Structures are given as structure tokens and as C-alpha cells.
Task: structure prediction
Amino acid sequence: MPLHLEPDDGPPSFPDLLATAGYRAVAAGLRLGLFDALADGPRPLPSLAAALDADPRGTGLLAEALVSFGYLTRGPDGYAATPETAKWLTGGGYAEVDKFWSVVLFESWQGLEESVRTGKPAIDFYAWLAERPEVLRRFQGMLAGHADAIAPEVASIVPVGSTLLDVGGGHAKHAIRLCTAHPSLEATVIDLPDALAVGAAAVTDAGLSRRITLRAGDYDTLDLGEGYDTVLLFNVVHGRTAEANEALLARVASALRPGGAVVLLEHDEHPPDRASDAFARVFSLNLFHGQGGQVYGTSEITTWLTSAGLTTPTTHPLTTSPGQSLLVSHKP
Ligand SMILES: C[S@@+](CC[C@H](N)C(=O)[O-])C[C@H]1O[C@@H](n2cnc3c(N)ncnc32)[C@H](O)[C@@H]1O
Result:
């Protein structure tokens, strides 16, 4: 991060070598609790190493690397977090995002070449997550936090009747928001058992256990039911192959009543600014590697929807999540 290297005539990969090493050092700092240990002010090296229960020489070398990348400063009282580091990388806020992505990039991307070579995901992301309960909790926590942020805008766009099915709705935040806003609405949420455990706690806390049914299982094989007014498919199709999406959308179409709506939440294929576009490309590569998916364009999604007998979708870009849109399509 804060090196801001100017382009020069050197190898184009060198800034990325530094950035990657810097991010790995940040991940080590987060996992060791280094930034939290500096939350109350600077510490001399012996005190910092003792707080981390870590080797003083190793702690010093890590701290020096973090100074060079602009995350820490070194002064008469020892090492200190910069104001930006204190704001973003201490506690359980944005630090959770870095803890998640650093594990993804430095562990799950080990077999990236194999995915690219074979065209098949080298890992099964959700099985990989299930083996790592802490990473799974963090992943669902990130999704739930994002859902909380966009839920009011989403609720203003989603067409609602009396029944709603949220396919892959794990944390249940959207079902909770919509049931709260529409007192006669009843919702069903389908997800894998570990993810649904997160949703079960949220539904109980919201006092909505009677109106929100949680169904644990594989949405590719469970009977989805029929007659729904609304089906949500939020952040689902990007985690699957085109063939799998065509099959799922055909089943979703069967689960809708005539006039009912399917609403997809997806990332825009080409966000306007350069950083968002780069993130979308990295995200897409990660989806391919772990799930055989990618960020799909609206035209391809439209083809699947119309092949399933649904209407061409209307696109609603989200102001609360720039770079993401809701696609609303109906069953004629
Ligand atoms: C990217 S998350 C999206 C969660 C939520 N819809 C949202 O937008 O915040 C995808 C969800 O699909 C679930 N999922 C993945 N494969 C599944 C399957 N075969 N059957 C049921 N759920 C699945 C995951 O557990 C996860 O909760």
C-alpha cells in the first residue's frame, strides 16, 4: 500500500513483488495481533514482542518491514500504528476482510496454475471453507455486513408478494429485512448447513422463526418448491459454471408463479474506475479457481434467463454498493 511507486524502466513485476510481500507482512501482523497490540499507543520492541508472545528479533524485522510499507512508525517510544492503520486494521472491522483475503490469496491460490491449465477448479471453495470454520465464519460475517449495508436499497427494489425464496441466502439478512418491511411475507432460505447456522442465529434474534424457514441442503438437488412470488439469487451465479446456472435458472423458473420475479445480485462486469475493475478481474479469477465461476456479463445472464422462459431483466445499479447491480426478471 503506501509506497506509491512511480512507474520507471525497471521490471514491471517488481512493484507487485513488493506489494505482495507487504500484504503478506500485513497478514502476519494481523494474525499475530500486532496491530491490536499497538491500539493503546506505541510500544518498545521488547514490550511488543512480549505482547505477541513472539520472538523479539522476528518481531523487530516484521515491524521494520511494516514501517517501510507505511503501516507503522518508529519513534522514541517504540513502534506505533499510523492513524490509517489504527482506523482500519485494529479491532474486528475491515481487518476481517484482510484476514479473509490473505488466506484466500496465500493459501487457496496455491493451485491456480492447475485451474488455468485444466479449466477446472483446483479446489472446491465451499468444501475448503467447511474445513476452516474460522474462515467460514469470517466469510459469512463479511457477506452479512455487506447485506446489512445494502438491505434498505435492495428492499426498495425487490418486488414482494406473500412468499419469497432466497437461494444461497446463508446469513438470512435479506429475508429478515424483507419480512420486517412486509408483515405478511413468509420466506424460505436455502443454503449449506454451516452457512445456515449463521442465518439461524440471526432469524432467532430477529424473532422471525415462525415466518422464515431455513432449509439446509444443496440447492442443485433440493426440491425448490413452487408458486413463489419472488426468488432471490444473490451472489450465486458468479460462483458457478454457465451450464450449472442454466440448469438452476430453469428450476428457479419452475418454482415461480406466473408473474413472479427472480432477482439476481451480481458484480458489474466492467466497473468504471481502474481499481474496481482490477478487483473485479481478481475476483473473477478467484471464482474460476475455487468454483468454476466468474463475473458474468449481463448479456450472458440475460441469455440464461430468457432460455428459462423468463423476461429480459431490468438492471438496477446499487448506489450503496457501486459496481454491483440487481437484475429483475419476471415469469410471464
Ligand atoms: C457468495 S455467497 C452469497 C450469500 C448471500 N446470498 C449474499 O449475497 O450475501 C453464496 C452462498 O451460496 C451457498 N452455497 C454454495 N453452494 C451451495 C449449494 N450447492 N447449495 C446450497 N447453498 C450453496 C454458500 O454457502 C453461500 O452462503
Summary: Residues 126, 143, 147, 168-170, 190-192, 195, 218-220, 234-236, 239, 265 surround S-adenosylmethionine (CB under 6 Å).
